[in-house]
TrEMBL record:
Protein family per UniProt: Belongs to the troponin I family.
Gene Ontology biological process terms, A to Z: cardiac muscle contraction; skeletal muscle contraction
Coiled-coil blocks: 17-78
Protein name (record): Troponin I type 1b (skeletal, slow)
Role this protein plays: Troponin I is the inhibitory subunit of troponin, the thin filament regulatory complex which confers calcium-sensitivity to striated muscle actomyosin ATPase activity.
InterPro entries recorded: Troponin, Troponin_I, Troponin_sf
A Pfam family assignment: Troponin
Molecular function GO terms recorded: actin binding
Sorted UniProt keywords: Acetylation, Actin-binding, Coiled coil, Muscle protein
CC annotations in GO: troponin complex
Length: 183
């Protein structure tokens, strides 16, 4: 309950701060736009001064138009060349980024699905359908009766030897048995 009240108070404080920050950002953006417009006007005044056409004859106006057309053609050619260079560079950057990702090995790996394939099917795919390999022929055969007898013997031995092996005497017997087996 207390944390809810604290968060409500903080949000009440944060709202005016947010609105002040937004207002300040808006002012700075408007100021930046005005500065850009002023820079543009200064650049145009410097590079393209206004033309006085009041007292010009028809022939001078035609010459001026032809001169402006040639300048426009030159600028358009430069613009086209620059755009072609930029396009070429962006393609080259994309290719290099792809190469870098390939060299790093950080590319998306597709999700693999689990497929159940038997060992026989794998061997057939590797060796071909002509070769047949019987994996069961190489297995060792084990009789069930022998394993059951061994289990019962172990259990009976354990129950008989619990009291005999308890205490220090049992440990001595185990030590002697291990010593005898090593020699």
């Amino acid at each position: 309950m207390n944390t809810y009240i604290i968060t409500m108070e903080l949000s009440a404080i944060a709202c005016p701060l947010q609105s002040l920050m937004v207002a300040k950002a808006k002012e700075e953006l408007e100021q930046e736009m005005l500065e850009k417009e002023e820079q543009k006007a200064r650049y145009l005044d410097e590079k393209a001064p206004p033309i006085q056409t009041n007292m010009m004859s028809l022939q001078k106006l035609k010459d001026l138009c032809e001169e402006l057309h040639t300048k426009i053609d030159v600028v358009d050619e430069e613009r086209y060349d620059i755009e072609a260079k930029v396009l070429h560079n962006t393609r080259e950057i994309k290719d290099l980024n792809i190469k870098v990702l390939d060299l790093r090995g950080k590319f998306k790996r597709p999700n693999l699905r689990r497929v159940r394939v038997s060992a026989d099917a794998i061997l057939r795919s590797l060796l071909g359908s002509k070769h047949k390999v019987d994996l069961r022929a190489n297995l060792k055969s084990v009789k069930k009766e022998d394993t059951e007898k061994e289990k019962t013997v172990e259990v009976s031995d354990w129950r008989k030897n619990v009291e005999a092996m308890s205490g220090m005497e049992g440990r001595k017997k185990m030590f002697d048995a291990a010593k005898g087996a090593n020699q």
